[in-house]
Design a protein that fits this description.
The protein is built from 6 helices and 10 strands. By secondary structure, it is α+β, with helices and mostly antiparallel strands. The chain has 2 domains: 68 residues; 189 residues, Jelly Rolls (Sandwich), CATH 2.60.120. The strands form 2 sheets. Strands 3-4-5-9-8-7-6 form a 7-stranded antiparallel β-sheet, covered by helices on one side. A 3-stranded antiparallel β-sheet has the order 1-2-10. Helix 1 runs antiparallel to helix 2. The radius of gyration is 61 Å and the shape is elongated. It starts with a helix and ends in a 6-residue tail after the last helix.
Length: 305
């Protein structure tokens, strides 16, 4: 701009018209330059202000995630969990034992095997029935005296007795029933075929001869006996067979009591009761007996009948 002012003061060979143009041009440039200075200054100031704002915004944007992270990491109080939940949270996973698996229960067989090495007798009987053996195995019916053995000669011993539960036939006159095994080593085979007393329930009141029957594949002799009082009745069936040098006796007994016509009580089905006892008889086996076992059993016969 100083150069422009110098050009107007110097002598020039240019025409007045050119000089005038030069002066106007210089004046115009000088005027624009003076007006532009404040504008440029203002523009520069505004640019610096915008730059400052951008720098501040960038700094804030860089610091804001840190503030957010700090806020997240700061502890927040929460209500305590229930005791059961707290125990599960604090207990290590390894310390929690798995729930034990239930073992499958094996179903017990309905029948039980009885075996006596001294007599060689074995049989099956229902698990619910009560078994007694030896000196305690006396054959009795409810309310009746001891059921006698039916050998023609003394010397018999009781091996085992199985009793039917008394509650087996509710609402009837049933009192008791049993299956019993006796052995007599003092009898011969011919004597074993006979009985001390036999059935007398015929029309003439004469004894009824023993009957030969087959129980399974075993031939036996059988008879029965019946006794009664005013309120009690007892019926017994006897079976004999000879094996191992001894006479084996199997007794099936049924006892009833009361009057079945009173109080809605019915007569028990006798055939049904004896059918259950006959099923036990059908499973009987007599195995060979060692000589020393025979001696041991014979030593216990004294005083028995």
């Amino acid at each position: 701009m100083a150069t422009i002012w110098k050009s107007t003061n110097q002598k020039s060979t240019k025409s007045p018209t050119q000089a005038t143009n030069t002066t106007i041009s210089g004046t115009t440039l000088s005027s624009w330059s003076r007006q532009q200075k404040p504008a440029m200054a203002t523009s520069t100031t505004a640019g610096l202000a915008i730059l400052g704002l951008l720098l501040v915004a960038g700094a804030c944007s860089k610091q804001s995630p840190k503030s957010a992270l700090v806020a997240v990491s700061s502890p927040v109080s929460a209500p305590a969990p229930p005791p059961a939940v707290a125990a599960l949270i604090t207990t290590p996973a390894a310390a929690v034992s798995p729930a034990p698996q239930k073992k499958a229960l094996k179903k017990r067989p309905a029948n039980v095997v009885y075996s006596d090495p001294n007599s060689g007798v074995s049989f099956l009987y229902p698990r619910k029935f009560a078994l007694t053996s030896g000196d305690k195995a006396q054959s009795q019916l409810a309310g009746m005296d001891e059921v006698p053995m039916n050998f023609v000669q003394p010397g018999g011993v009781v091996v085992a007795t199985v009793a039917v539960p008394s509650a087996s036939y509710p609402g009837t006159d049933f009192a008791s029933a049993f299956f019993s095994v006796n052995v007599n080593r003092s009898l011969s085979e011919q004597e074993c075929e006979h009985f001390a007393f036999v059935d007398t329930r015929n029309a003439d009141g004469e004894p009824v001869d023993a009957e030969k029957v087959n129980v399974g594949s075993t031939g036996m002799e059988t008879t029965s006996n019946f006794s009664a009082s005013a309120i009690k009745q007892a019926e017994t069936q006897y079976y004999h067979n000879y094996v191992n040098g001894a006479c084996y006796e199997y007794v099936l007994g049924l006892g009833t009591e009361g009057f079945a016509t009173e109080g809605g009580i019915e007569h028990v089905n006798r055939d049904e009761v004896f059918a259950k006892l006959e099923k036990i008889l059908a499973t009987v086996k007599t195995n060979p007996v060692e000589p020393e076992r025979v001696v041991e059993q014979a030593a216990g016969i004294t005083g028995k009948e």
